[in-house]
Design goal:
binds fe (ii) ion; alpha+beta; 9 helices; Double-stranded beta-helix; binds 2-oxoglutaric acid
Amino acid sequence: MTMTVADILGVRPGTGTGLAVWELPDAVRDELGRELAALPDPSADLDRATARCHQIFARLPLEMLQQILDFGRHPDTPGVALVGNLPVDGVLPATPHDGGPSREKTGFVAEGVLLGLSGLLGEPVGMLTEKDGRIVHDVVPVPGGERTQTNQGSRAPLNFHSDIVYDAVGRYDLANPDFLVLNCLRADHEGRAVTSYADARDITAALSEDVLTTLRSPLFRLNAPGGYTRAHAGGREVLSDPVPVIGGAAAYPEIAVSANGVRAMTTAAATALLRLQEVCRSVAQPVRLRPGQALLVNNRKGVHARSEFTPRYDGFDRWLQRTYVRRSLWSIRHRASPAARRVHL
Ligand SMILES: O=C(O)CCC(=O)C(=O)O
Ligand SMILES: [Fe+2]
């Protein structure tokens, strides 16, 4: 019997940190593309659309299907994965530049890919304070938002952060998505934009004991996302209760950092935060997303960031579609909107 490195080390395939990469075989890409070409606008009936996309994506090769499912369910699997050679829309209209959906898009292959992959991880969910509760988010550069710490930005790097949501209980890291899926419809003109992921397991391994202890202490207040503070507080800070930035078992840490500002409550906490951003940069996994590629991001196992790039607002700017995914909608039922099952406050 031949022994593999995995046998010797007792490591199961697809565990640990690092970027997992899966490529669809061409024949599978074409078959999925044909099926998705007939998908009606998913926003008309989201539950039917996710069921149909589930049926289509169930035909992924078994090994790949299991690895994606394992990515979604196990604590010891990687926090970030790239799926490549995905089907794309035959005709792609101009990149929208108001942060909302394109009104010219007639096919829904990209949306189907996004929902199909999301459905393997959990339940796509909309938050009323993010993109008006839509399930499919368009992440595009928006004029005026170039230098903001939001998904509308371009000319300024978006710091390492988690996607969080304001919640009246005072914690913004509970009702937030477990995963984001980012499907690339168009790269930026120069192909420069980099999405990076820093895994909390790599971060904690690189931090000194005392900085880690500080980050594990409730010495930080997260500011609510820009969308929330603009709509409800005239842009002023809306801070969470004091929370640790890193929590959970040493082998499986969870991290939560807000893009819109973290208030450190002591000088040591402020120093620890600076060190954290530095360490994130040093352990980051960089990806330049291209059309036909989607990034699966675990929003608890790590933090993500985006480099700067130059928008032109000529209809050919960078265009990602994004979902927020929860493993379960039950634990956020206190926020459920009575009007739409998948939309939360
Ligand atoms: O544009 C990107 O690559 C990622 C932006 C981001 O942080 C997000 O969509 O949550
Ligand atoms: Fe983000």
